[in-house]
Amino acid sequence: MNYRITQFASLVIMILTLVGCKSETKKQDKPVHVEGVQYAGSLQTIMKGELDATISLTDLKEVPNLYALGAAEGLQGEIQIFNGVAYNSEKTDEMVNIDRSFDDNAAMLVYAQVPKWKEVKVPAMVKSDGQFAIFVKQAAQEAGVDVSKPFPFMLSGPIAKLNWHIVDWDENNPNHNRQSHLDSGLNGVLANQFIDILGFYSEAHKGVFTHHDSNLHMHFKTETVNLAGHVDYIFLGSNMTLKLPEQ
After folding, report:
1. Cα–Cα dist 156/223, whole Å
2. Percent of the chain, pLDDT > 70?
């Protein structure tokens, strides 16, 4: 009799354990929530030659409404994620390859979750990089965004001019600076093309995920998605739209 009770108790424990395991698995499978703007790695450490991965994109693959930009591990390409879709770019034989997978690791990545955007018409007088940076802050304040904290934005429309690059670093080169990174891979100029730009604004993260002389870090993709990469300079065209996180 005691033997039968022991068998029954063991069976109950086994069932409860299996149920607990299944419940735990379900919890792990739930979409990840990203609170505010997050980042891994920094431009400062990259300039010191520390190019190892700080985050794997696979860790963010299930995050809905994900927007991210950064530099691939080893500075072997640029990372762009628009609404959960990857458009990662790398140099291959003087050409550009767009990778839609989440297989890359990043040496530096800044990212956020944006379920909904609020659209703002960009005034015709806003043209240069500097003018746009001022407008982004003003528009964000008017939209109720807390500009004391970093925030993502998008800019869409027919750009008048956009200078871009895709880094392709020689691991044997110890001389890290902004110009050497620009010169290492592919670079070029787009004119009068429809583009989508993803950017992050912060006044407190210079050298972290914005460059030391700017409050903005921006990447882009073309309408046909045959090109994507890092934005070095922009001159806005007419009828462009700024998008800010809806509060």
Report:
1. 10
2. 85
